[in-house]
Amino acid sequence: MELTPTVFSNLVLLSDKKxxxxxxxxxxxxxxxxxxxxxxxxxxxxxxxxxxxxILTCNExxxxxxxxxxxxxxxVKVYILNEEQATLLVTYLKxxxxxxxxxxxxxxxxxxxxxxxxKFKIERELEKPxxxxxTQAIKEWSYNNKWAYKNITDLLLTSIVGKNAKQLTNNxxxxxxxxxxxxxxxxxxxxENQVISLLELNFTYGDIKKAIKKEPLNN
Length: 219
What we know:
Blueprint: E1 6-7, E2 13-14, E3 20-23, H1 24-30, H2 35-44, H3 46-50, E4 56-57, E5 79-81, H4 83-91, H5 97-140, H6 148-161, H7 165-169, H8 182-200, H9 205-214
Antiparallel strand pairs: 1-2, 2-3, 3-5, 4-5
Helix pairs in contact: 1-2, 4-5, 5-8, 6-8, 6-9
């Protein structure tokens, strides 16, 4: 699971692979607890937590590290918790008013992230035939060359998120789409359709670029 987090709330994050998760530090900070008190519970009930998935720490995740230091400046192991593990952890805490409020908030935020993931999956399926049409339009474009597909794709990506494919994926085993939100994917699909029309009109790359910048997408 690659973790270049998209932050949707202060409690729950979304990985590049669209997997909601939270961190032991987020839980301890929100509950105003010492972080070692949270990690001690996880270690004590390790078998229980493993029933809901592998127990991961930030140092075990390629490309995602949190350098949290304790009072004497030593690195602290930060646990990555999926929804079930996070919910289980809260059940081991004292049932104070703060814990109860936090539990409700955590449930809401995980629900919001699951809803976002579902929206993204729907939009991704809707985008696939548009991408296929775009690929065909590039093939039939009189200005087509070996760099055309990459250049058009990077133009689309930078227009939506300000980064090209290489910058977005950072050589990880993901696609540029994986870092989109569902809203960004809707805009991307709309822009793809615009570019298809311009390709069919045989605009040059430079003219396509100018046209996109001249008429930005409406929100």
